Amino acid sequence: MKKYDTPLLDELEKGPWPSFVTEMKKAGQKNEMANDAVGHLEKCFSTRIGYWKHGGIVGVLGYGGGVIGRYSEIGDEFPGVAHFHTVRLNQPSGFFYTTKALREICDVWDKYGSGLTNMHGSTGDIVLLGTNTAALEPIFAEYSSRGWDLGGSGSDLRTPSCCVGPGRCEWANYDTLDVIYNLTQEYQDELHRPMFAYKFKIKAAGCACDCVASLARADMSIIGTWKGDIQIDQAEVKNYAANGMDINSEIVGMCPTECMSYDGGELKIDNANCKRCMHCITKMTKALQPGAERGATICIGSKAPIVVGSLLSWVVVPFIKLEPPYTELKDLIRKIWDWWDDNAKPRERIGEVIEMKGMRSFLEAIGVEPQPQQIKEPRKDPFMFYTDEDIAKFKANEAEEKKTGVYKF
Amino acid sequence: MALPERKTDIGPPHYKQFMPPVIVNNYGKWKYHEVLSPSAMVHVAESGDKLWTVRVASPRILATDSIREICDISDKYCDGHLRFTTRNNVEFLISDEKNLEPIQAELKEKGFLSGGIGAGISNVVHTQGWVHCHGAATDASGLVKSMMDELVDYFTTKRLPNKLRLAVACCVNMCGAVHCSDIALVAVHTKVPVIDHDKVKNMCELPTVISSCPTRAISPDPAKKSVKIKEEKCMYCGNCFTVCPPINIKDPDRDGIAIVVGGKVSSLRTNPKFSKLVIPYISNEPPRWPKVVAAVKHIVEVYADNARKHERVGEWIERIGWEGFFNLTGIEFSYQCIDDFTFMRDTLRTSSTFKW
Asked: Which of A210, A241, B24, B65 is most buried (CB neighbours < 10 A)?
């Protein structure tokens, strides 16, 4: 195996934080591809430029996603990375593993690939970094026969992912792990065979803490929430106070809606004015619990800045119950995809299409009524669309008012 | 040797088979948790059962042998159960309290870095960089390593007013949630792309290239059967390069790093926020990016000294005002910080009530 001189990368083996260079060299000790990846990276560091080509079309038979083609411009110099494709394996909900499962993943990968992984990629997949085209079918046969399937890539449903949810969190307002497992199984075709205008990401967070950054980077963000009063254990409130928490400054004073009060005795919450931000619950988790009627808010449209600016997801369905088999959610997803399909230009995310076509068009298509929970504030300009039906409805209401003599607004 | 029979569309394995019995038995019935230290916490179920978690950092890129070493430790103390976090940490799931001290001792002895829980700095969400991406303007893993070597105490022991989420994007595509982090680095291009006309005419679809430009700087160049770029309109986003590789935007001397701050994804107290630009350009200086690291550390320290308990970076800045942020940090305010693209209307000040 060729020994590369790597003075720049060696600098990144020093210091207390775990070193990715050490990992690459470790894989490189027994794998030619990983070894060449180290040499290739050193060259990038010395010239301050990358040498990977744009992805190529590679994959496994019958799938259009799950493998990202990667070739080097300087494959002659580093033959081990001339082909260096990524394989995405669909992670289990919540990233739970047994060591048996992880060892199995490693053994197959050592046999066919570079031995380098990302645990995990940004979308959530187990990312297997670096293999060649000939190895793809064997890799797929080995993994799928052991119960592992590929994730998404390209213009398809990207691998859905979620927070740890009810697996290990007291704040999960619905079963994020099960919703994601269930949706992933339901939409295998959309995940593996790109048929959309662009990517579509679904991320499930159990509460407003959003540990999976759903609101910022998912076309569909499913954020757990509740209806009803926050459940208070006053004895535990006393314990927090006794243990030194300044409840008025840390909890009451930081409540964004000023709906709490505390006089040293009982903690009181004006629940009608609570917007369920989770601050108090996260800080006093022994004393406070979300209300009893649990569900989620569905938000749509977030994406990174390319190309006319980032979007955060917009509230579309303020509250939905999420219980197996999730029929209402699945119906909604189908309607969203149908409308997106009908209206998107190539490489247009759903949020961009909503911006182009207007939220009304979208809401009507998916059968959701306009509600004040969907907006921060109403429109400021007076340029709006009226349909003949809108005016007919306004007129009919007024005719009714004339009859009854009572105005209704 | 014959390959096993392939199966299609089976989806991921069911998660429950990977969970320790204490989770299966108390699934959805957790009552509360306590953070015991920056590296350990305990979750208590309604049944009274307890699950201890010990968190360690990973460099995200892991060799298979390192995964096996992690497995060895899990086999010894966790009956072979573990998980990863959305920020690339490893979490050892411990069902028996008597294993809590020994696993921490062994992790320390083996050189693992424990921490990342609670009001400090957790692992860094980042992109592939030069390790594996065609569009990378810098190396994400290298920036993360350089930055975290300097900030490591905030992972292991030192506490901050609240969590501080760091992220690194190796180009403006910003894979991952870089655009909503407390402090994030994003690699930027600063020069108009160079067009290889001979290749453009063979490799690219011209209408797609022209429509890829958000500022309409690209128009047809019929003589060359290619496109031309109006230089003064180009904002170096690289979207044309994404759809047409022979339009090369990479430039080793001009590519650099911008720093954005004040974003968050949670809705705790205040609504989720985008990160905003405070430092538009620092030269791309591998392998250690000393100026970038110094800038991030400086911002972290000013936040640590000035924010109130539970305030995230963005909430602290909203309270003191952006003029307050530039005053306190001493960062020079530059033209680039004023939005002249899609968010201009929302971001210019419309009142005379600001701080000096």
From this structure: A210
Q: What is the pLDDT of residue A308?
A: 81
Residue A138: pLDDT over 70: yes
**How many other C-beta atoms lie within 10 A of the C-beta of residue A168?**
26
Is residue B154 within a helix (H) or strand (E), and if so which, with residue range? Answer: helix B140-156
Contact A213 B177 (CB under 8 A): yes
Q: Give per-residue pLDDT as tens, A59-111.
A: 999 999 999 999 999 999 999 999 999 999 999 999 999 999 999 999 999 99
Helix crossing, B313-320 with B322-329: angle to 10°? 100
Cα(B167)–Cα(B209) distance, rounded to whole angstroms? 30
A364 to chain B nearest CA, in Å? 27
- Residues of chain B in contact with residue A344, where contact means CB-CB under 8 angstroms, are none
Provide DSSP, B159-206. Answer: --SS-B-EEEESSTT--SSGGGSSEEEEEE--SPPEE-HHHHHHH--H
Q: Which residues of B touch A60 (CB under 8 A)?
A: 6
Q: Across the strands, what pairs with B34?
A: B42
Nearest to A96 among B19, B113, B245 (CB): B19
Number of Cβ pairs < 8 A linking chain A and chain B: 353
Contacts with A277 (C-beta within 8 Å, 6 or more apart), sequence order: A208, A256, B267, B268, B269
**CA distances in angstroms from A164 to A203, A335, B83, B100, B305, listed in the order given:** 12, 28, 9, 21, 33
A144 phi/psi in degrees, rounded to 5: -65, -35
- Sequence-ordered alpha helix ranges (H) in B11-139: 21-26, 64-77, 100-109
Q: Could you tell me if B3 lies within 8 Å of chain A, comparing CB atoms?
A: yes
> Is residue B143 within 8 Å of residue B100, measured between CB atoms?
no
By Cβ distance, the residue of A118, A137, A208 closest to B268 is A208
Q: Does ipTM top 0.95? A: yes
Q: State the DSSP code for A68.
A: E
Residue B84 CA to residue A299 CA, distance in Å, equals 26
Q: Report the alpha-carbon distance of residue B15 to residue B29 in Å, rounded.
A: 17
Nearest CA in chain B to A125: B12
Residue (of A73, A145, A139) closest to A110 by Cα position: A139
Q: Which positions ≥6 away from A4 have C-beta within 8 Å? A: A35, A38, A39, A42
Written as six digits, the tokens of A39 are 């040499």
Q: Under 8 Å CB-to-CB from A405, ≥6 apart: which residues?
A: none
